[in-house]
Amino acid sequence: MKLLETVKLGAFELPNRIIMAPLTRCRADNPGRIPNDLMAEYYRQRAGAGLIISEGTVVSKKGIGYVNTPGLFSDEQTEGWKKVTRAVHAEGGRIFTQLWHVGSISHPDFHDGELPHAPSSINPVIPVRTPEGRKHSVEPKAMTVEDILQTITDFKMAAIRAMDAGFDGVEIHSSNGYLFHQFFSNTANRRSDEYGGSIENRTRFYFETLESILSVVPADRVGTRLNPMYHGRAGITLTEDSLPTFEIIVKRLNDYKLAYLHLSRPFFPVESSLLIENVPAHFRKLYQGHLMLNGEYDRESGETALQSGHGDSICYGRPFIANPDLPGRIKNNHPWAVGDIRTYYNNGAEGYTTYPSYIAQ
Fold it and tell me: I want to staple 213 with a disulfide (CB 3.0 to 4.6 A). Which of 118, 159, 165, 252 is the partner?
């Protein structure tokens, strides 16, 4: 079975092609957003994955948009993540961290009353879960060039902290409607300076950030995530410009020899004549490196995608929540447990570290 075969990914020879996708779980429930012992146990339980990609980890206070998500912008956070990486490595696993800035998908409650940052002052028109409960999103502040340069520095410093914390590498979250994706989109990015307008300009911030990270982390320990057919959140909709934008990004990424490109199929219903139905097949023709596929795969569809040559590894998200031993279940064709959605974003161990392996049941 191809899912269980070894595969080269950047600096690593993975024991299987089953990747644990980034999953927001909101367990850094302390004022400093510091990873804790419970998180270390959660990731340790799932170390049988070929690679774990951590939950989105904010690179700065300005990058925050969710309750109890961990960060990588303080010494205390770096020390907290060391517990996680040590626990994973003790089980023979590998773990990258996903570096994250949510952009407009935030609220002033997270920023001492100040506005969130985004490419343009466009309200994403979504509910935001704040420490004070659900509230409506607001019109963000359009980032100045100084804000952009500071954010590039924030990503670079977070990457340095990630390596100090013992991560095997980093993934840039440039997907799913968050900050970089907002810059890519000509419906969310209405700027008229060097960071808006043309495709070259709208992708400038991203590539400047990537190159800054590559100045401190080897390319074979850096991945990035894209969702080309994302539609309908954060002011982002598919336009005639969307596909050419991502084709240019993907082709250019070949020059960097990264560890991988993490590519998502659309995971929200998309009704648009501009939708590319088979995202992996389309971009496999353009990308020459390790292509990691994400988007509601199960055992059979994941294996089919690999056998067809559309990707080199498969990312599983929610299945890893209730199946810490997912690679073993795939190997033995054991049934998959279903997670309790009510506990996805709660505090505490319930629904987090309490799912048993198949053998232990």
Answer: 159
* Among candidate residues 10, 176, 2, the one with its CA nearest the CA of residue 94: 10
Q: Is residue 158 part of a domain?
A: yes
Residue 227 belongs to domain spanning:
51-298
Which tokens belong to 85?
């990486």
Main-chain phi, psi angles of 229, to 5 degrees: -100, 20
Q: Which of 42, 178, 195, 355 is catalytic?
A: 178
Question: What average pLDDT score do residues 58-71 get?
Answer: 98
Ordered alpha helix ranges (H), 287-325 = 299-307, 318-322
Whether 178 is catalytic: yes
Please say if the pLDDT value at position 356 is more than 80.
yes
pTM of this prediction exceeds 0.85: yes
Beta bridge partners of 198: none
Do 166 and 144 contact (CB within 8 A), yes or no?
no
Asked, for residue 188, whether it belongs to a domain, the answer is yes
CA distances from 179 to 46, 102, 125, 166 (A): 29, 5, 15, 26
In a domain, 63, yes or no: yes
pLDDT tens digits for 286-304?
999 999 999 999 999 999 9
Domain count, the chain: 1
Pairing of strands 169-173, 95-100: parallel
Classify 41 as helix, strand or coil.
helix
pLDDT tens track for 328-351: 999 999 999 999 999 999 999 999
